[in-house]
Transglutaminase domain-containing protein (Luteimonas gilva), 495 residues
Amino acid sequence: MRPVGHRRGLTALALAAALLLGGGSVAQAAPKGGEAEAETIALIDAGHFREAESRIAAALAEPSLDAPSRTALEFQRERMRRILLDFTLNEEEAKARVRKQIPDLKDGEFAKWDAAGLLEHQTIDGRKLYFSRAPSNLFRLSAEARARRAKQTPFNDSPLEKSSPHHKEVRDAALASGKSSVAPRRVRITQSIAVNADAVPAGETLRAWLPYPRAIPGQQEDIRFVASEPSKHEIAPESTMQRTVYVEKPAVAGKKTEFSVTYELTIYGQYKAIDPAKVVPVTETPELAPYMGERPPHIAYTDDLRKFSREAVGDEKNPYRIAQKLYAAVDKIPWAGAREYSTLTNISDYALHAGHADCGQQTLLLMTLLRLNGIPARWQSGWIFSDTEYNNMHDWGWLYLAPYGWVPMDVTFGRFADGDPAIRDFYLGGFDAYRIAFNDDYGRDFAPKKEFFRSETVDLQRGEVEWKGGNLYFDQWDYDFDWTMLPRGAAKDTQ
């Protein structure tokens, strides 16, 4: 779900969200129409879509409405459409999905799990609608529901979510060599997009942005572009925080429009052994300032978040011990399949209250908590894979500890059930060498810039597509990620 904080300016949508959340000086800077935007956001979040649409239509009919406010309101109309694509099930349909796993499901059981908040739903204009992934998420959130499944099929989790020889390989190599970047892997990756046939009129040009890594010394290096489809392409500058390969192609009647990019790179495992006694509070510098403080709408110090922080941290003063406590507190939030990020007003607040969260939501919550406690934190995300057939999108982060510098954190993988404390806490100070970063920040502009709304306003992992008629959302195209591990000799240890 990207440097953090210092951007050329918050979007009108972010300003409106900051108003809703009480964003202080940020909210005061809202453009004309900001109050209408904030009220509209509040109506949508409360499920009053018809009233929100009425207000949007009235506001857009005003000739004096400024352009940023107009764009923000148009996005809120699009956000309602996207929410309805996520919340597609009525109660009977949700029950039917659960019965695929629990054939003898009782209505009372469903009602009990629903009342406990284990089946995510919204009431929209008086209709109770369930999130399309709520029935499958139920089995991740409820041990009782899991035990009732007719077949105890394992979840398709990453093999790196349990301690493995690779974690020990990274830890041992770092300690033996004194290097923080070790155990390199060389990999060839192909990422592709296939736009549905006749998604746009034949002959119209489709524009696509495919994720592409930037070189990060000691983390991912020796990037070599191999090919693209079509062959004419534009690689964004290395400085682009959400880097892409841009391609375009005309649509052909009755056929999918396909785009792809292939490249190679070397990825390093990371490990830093932290001595808590050596950790001291950070002194803010111009270099660290972008990674400290709030960044509405998704990094905001709400009253509930402050309360959660106090309960987790207690009287602890050591920054590393604080980070450990916050990491453990967020790690307790169970993972579940997520709504699209563009539909959420404040992602960290959502993670705090929903009773579950995915990797990006957990990471943004942890980042917010760390910053609240004076610890710089920043975003990173991309894709994870393995020596086997597993791959998936994934988000993680980094925190800054003096005098150690930037330290890896992956709160979604969390703590292992391992007797070795260094392995148990591997992902607070370490990374595996099976993750490629596409994003060094979230919600950043592409190069070249996208003209219309993004499908994913926070992250960049699947790609983006548009044409002169507007953005193409995820229901109009599919994506794929393929990888091949290259011989170990192709990668060398670094710093």
Summary: The chain is about 30% helix and 25% strand. Residues 1-32 have pLDDT under 50 and may be disordered.
